[in-house]
Amino acid sequence: MRIEHDYRLVVKISGVRSSADMRRLFGNGWKTINESQRAWIRHLLKLWGQHLGNEEYDRGEINILGRLMMRCEWSEQKGKQIEKVVSQLFCEGYRGEELMRKARDLVVPQSSAANIIALAKESDDADFMERVITKTFGRDNPIRSVARLRYCKCKSSQDVQRSLSYITGITSKEARNRMEWAESILEGELFYAAQRELKKEILQNAA
Fold first, then answer.
1. Model-level pTM?
2. What's residue 66's pLDDT?
3. Contact 36, 76 (CB under 8 A)
4. Cα distance between the two ends of the chain
5. DSSP 159
6. Torsional class of 83: left (φ above 0), alpha (ψ -120 to 50), beta (otherwise)
7. Which of 23, 109, 34, 100 is nearest to 64 (CA)?
8. R_g of the chain computed on alpha carbons
9. CA-to-CA distance for 142 and 179, rounded, in angstroms?
10. If DSSP codes are grouped into helix, strand and coil, which group holds residue 170?
């Protein structure tokens, strides 16, 4: 089963002694992000996980937030604006593609270069994130498996920590530390990688 493969890869982080060692072994340098940037990349990871996971999920608001955030010149202020608009429209009864179109018209200016790719399907957006994740970490990197367990298999950090402790014999505190380091690398690196790839895509479509 695929989930067993992911857990086998995640076991690799159990022997890492520090966050610096984990970045050296499984990351691509030191990347830090603020809380708003962390929220942005988590929305995109939820979009990716909900679409590519093997189970059915209530996609609704989360996917719309992630998809819109991909289509804006992103800033903390823009992120808050998107969340406010989507939440208000959701309360008004808009759902699915109708919610996406209505919210997009309000938050993505028609003159924006990003609007060129604003009509992409949800599956295209999820595939975009899959490409970014695989390009950033590779298929056998345990950080990618952490992402799969958390977002595709809907395992909580605590679930993965308990499994890591049970499989390897490390303490609960050691497992918690290693998951925190792994998720910090995952979110920090993917934020900048997704931003780079989006800019490339916008320029290619504008050419």
1. 0.76
2. 66
3. yes
4. 43
5. H
6. alpha
7. 100
8. 18
9. 11
10. coil
Residue type, 142: P
> Averaged over 72-89, what is the pLDDT?
75
Structure tokens at 41: 């990349």
Q: Is the pLDDT of residue 104 over 80?
A: no
Instruction: Tell me how far apart the alpha carbons of residues 63 and 76 are, in angstroms, rounded to a whole number.
Output: 18
- pLDDT greater than 90 at residue 128: no
In this predicted structure, the answer to whether residue 193 has a pLDDT above a threshold of 70 is yes
How many angstroms from the chain centroid is the CA of residue 98?
23
Residue % of the chain over a pLDDT of 90: 41
Q: How far apart are CA 202 and CA 26, in angstroms?
A: 29
pLDDT in tens, 21-54: 999 999 988 788 988 788 888 888 988 888 877 5
66, 10, 14, 4: which is closest to 41 by C-alpha?
66
Find the DSSP H helices in 1-147.
Answer: 2-10, 19-26, 35-52, 60-69, 76-91, 96-107, 122-137, 142-147
CA distance to 1, 58, 87, 112, 173, per residue, from 162 (Å):
19, 26, 34, 46, 10
Token digits of residue 163: 């499994």
Distance CA 141, CA 57 (A): 26
Asked if 50 contacts 57 with a C-beta cutoff of 8 angstroms, the reply is yes
Q: Which two three-digit tokens encode residue 64?
A: 């719309």
d(Cα 7, Cα 92) in Å, to the nearest integer?
42
Measured CA to CA, the distance from residue 138 to residue 122 in angstroms comes to 23
> Residue 162's pLDDT band (boundaries 50, 70, 90)?
very high
